[in-house]
Amino acid sequence: MTLILKGCLFSTLLVYAAVTDIKRREVDDWVSVSILIVSLIGTGGSFWGAILTALPFLIPALVKGGSIGGGDIKLMFACGAVLGVWGGLAQTVISLSLVAFFSLSIIITKGCKACKGTAIPLAPFLCVGGILSFIISNMGGI
Questions:
Q1: Is the separation of the CB atoms in 134 and 83 below 8 Å?
Q2: CA distance 39 to 68
Q3: If DSSP codes are grouped into helix, strand and coil, which group holds residue 56?
Q4: 23 alpha carbon, distance to own chain's centre
Q5: For 27-52, how does the pLDDT look when each residue is reduced to its tens digit (9 = 90+)?
Q6: If phi over 0 gives left and psi between -120 and 50 gives alpha, with beta otherwise, what is residue 111?
Q7: pLDDT band per the 50, 70, 90 thresholds, residue 23
Q8: How many other β-carbons are positioned within 10 Å of the β-carbon of residue 22?
Q9: What CA–CA distance (Å, rounded) separates 41 from 24?
Q10: Taking Cα atoms as reference points, which of 141, 135, 15, 116 lies closest to residue 75?
Q11: How far is CA 130 from CA 45, 109, 118, 123, in A?
Q12: Phi/psi zone of residue 120: left (φ > 0), alpha (ψ -120 to 50 degrees), beta?
């Protein structure tokens, strides 16, 4: 029962983050904090999952300012606490693969020059990756 509650709260918060990122291009801090609290339900949060899931998003943001927003980094940190190391890695791979396919579709339809500098909200992709990773992780797949 706790797993169902955890999954429902996690999914709801991710969907909210995705919608607000599309509308306002930001992820509210309270969403990430709430996901961290959700990570404590049942087996508890994963410290290493949080660190290792956020790191691939933090490094590019530090190297090239403005490339990835702080809200996305905090969201991934919180998701890693819920999903653990392998679930967080799966979320990262799924999410960034979806971003790559979406970007490729923009390039195909609009051309490279028209897309240069186009900002893409990441939270919708992180949402899909997070929910899929939660489902896969809790079915014994990861």
A1: yes
A2: 24
A3: helix
A4: 17
A5: 999 999 999 999 999 877 899 999 99
A6: left
A7: very high
A8: 11
A9: 30
A10: 15
A11: 15, 28, 24, 10
A12: beta
For residue 108, report the phi and psi dihedrals to the nearest 5 degrees. Answer: -65, -40
Give the span between the Cα atoms of 121 and 134, in whole angstroms. Answer: 21
Matching residue, tokens 């897309």: 115
Q: Could you tell me the two tokens for 127?
A: 């949402």
Q: pTM for this structure?
A: 0.91
All structural domains of the chain with their residue ranges: 2-138
Please list the alpha-helical segments (H only) found in 25-122: 29-38, 47-63, 70-110, 112-115
What number of CA atoms fall less than 13 Å from residue 98's CA on the CB side?
17
